[in-house]
Design a protein that fits this description.
alpha/beta; seven-stranded mixed β-sheet; three-stranded antiparallel β-sheet; 12 strands; binds pyridoxal-5'-phosphate; aminotransferase; PyrdxlP-dep_Trfase_small; pyridoxal phosphate; Aminotransferase; NHTrfase_class1_PyrdxlP-BS
Length: 381
């Protein structure tokens, strides 16, 4: 078979080698502590599960309107208003099967051959693949020397962007760093976006998961109202990864174009899942708070365990990940850690930043402690 360039230029996920090794070891009977996963370890809150069952019983099992069930789009618009994003009404929303599809549709709608997209490294793995599939070219700005903060990296960003820049992706709180960008950093992005007239995707999938700080939504900044594409979803805040529910909010012209891709590919997000999404947005604040509190405790716990072993990390203010400095050859470190200590992590090079391993602390304190003790005993810390 002769394959299209758009798929041949994308590599399979660099995390695959690690999860394959983990599965192989588990099949052989090993007890693997998996700190490589990007999902909360809590069940979906019961009221959301009940709402899905009720929606099925009520017959919401047929096709849904392509851009989303109207009540859910209204609830999303209300949530966005609560975040200060007054420019969006339900007409500015497409409900998608996961935030990933929202990002994919946005990149497909905006980027064509040779157009420049700027990423801040370390960056979530799929941005690169999405840009490559669209034929875009990547410019990457490394934030690792600034402990993953954006404000001190603004000069580097200013050098990297130009009138050729079409799109930039900002992900805060970020995967894999957990960094929360300051208002001053976002204002710096805004100034550059306005000066060079580019669009910015603000991936806010971890916005609800922060520790003692709040993440300003980029689209609330003056000058960004019509050049921000806001992405969010239900996977992380509501522990709904498998339900596949997310959304894009954007100026109406973009919704029109992305909506064509959406209707000709997925048709819509699952009907009864969208009904459960309404319940998530309207009646789940307490459960979200409890999960965030648990993440906060584990974060402190992990930072302390590492500090006791003289491993300093840039303490994250959001999400549930931490970048731990390891050997230059981070791929070898991660493979060794899983083979010798049976602890699965993700190499920083998968995110464009070698020399680190990403640890997800969406796991119990006991398992986190077990992992750190094993890594220490095997000489990995
Ligand atoms: N954006 C970031 C930064 C993520 O980490 C993820 C999931 O890992 C997504 C988007 C996609 O989330 P989903 O498609 O599950 O809504």
């Amino acid at each position: 078979m002769d394959f299209a360039d758009r798929v041949e230029r994308v590599e399979p996920s660099a995390t695959l080698a690690i999860s394959d090794l983990a599965s192989q070891l588990e099949a052989e009977g090993a007890d693997v502590v998996d700190l490589s996963v990007g999902e909360p370890d809590f069940p979906t809150p019961e009221n959301i599960v009940e709402a899905a069952k009720d929606a099925m019983d009520a017959g919401h099992t047929g096709y849904a309107p392509s851009n989303g069930v109207p009540e859910l789009k209204d609830a999303i618009a209300e949530k966005l208003h609560d975040d200060g994003l007054d420019q969006y009404s339900s007409e500015n929303v497409i409900v998608t099967p996961g935030a990933k599809m929202a990002l994919y549709e946005t990149v497909q709608a905006l980027i064509e051959d040779g157009e420049e997209v700027v990423l801040l490294d370390p960056a979530w793995v799929s941005y690169e693949a999405m840009v490559k599939m669209a034929g875009g070219s990547l410019t990457r700005v490394d934030t690792s020397e600034y402990d993953f903060a954006l404000e001190p990296a603004l000069d580097d960003l200013a050098e990297a962007v130009s009138d050729e820049t079409e799109l930039m992706v900002v992900n805060s709180p970020g995967n894999p760093t957990g960094a929360v960008y300051s208002d001053a950093a976002l204002e710096g992005v805004r100034d550059l976006a306005v000066e060079h007239d580019f669009t910015v995707i603000s991936d806010e999938i971890y916005k609800e998961i922060t520790y003692g700080v709040e993440q300003t939504s980029l689209g609330t900044l003056e000058g960004m109202e019509d050049r921000t594409v806001t992405i969010n979803g239900f996977s992380k805040a509501y522990s709904m990864t498998g339900w596949r529910l997310g959304y894009v909010a954007a100026p109406e012209e973009l919704i029109g174009q992305a909506g064509k891709l959406h209707s000709h590919s997925v048709s819509s997000a699952v009907n009864f899942v969208q009904h459960a999404g309404i319940e998530a947005l309207e009646n789940t604040d307490e459960a979200v708070e409890e999960m965030v509190e648990a993440f906060a405790e584990r974060r402190e716990f992990l930072v302390d365990l590492l500090a006791e072993r003289n491993v300093d990390v840039a303490e994250p203010d959001g999400a549930f990940y931490m970048m731990v400095p390891v050997d230059d050859n981070d791929q070898a470190w991660c493979e060794g850690a899983i083979e010798d200590a049976h602890v699965a992590t993700v190499p920083g090079s998968a995110f464009g930043t070698p020399g680190y391993a990403r640890i997800s602390y969406a796991n119990s304190k006991e398992r986190i402690e077990e992992a750190v003790e094993r890594l220490d005993a095997e000489g990995y810390l």
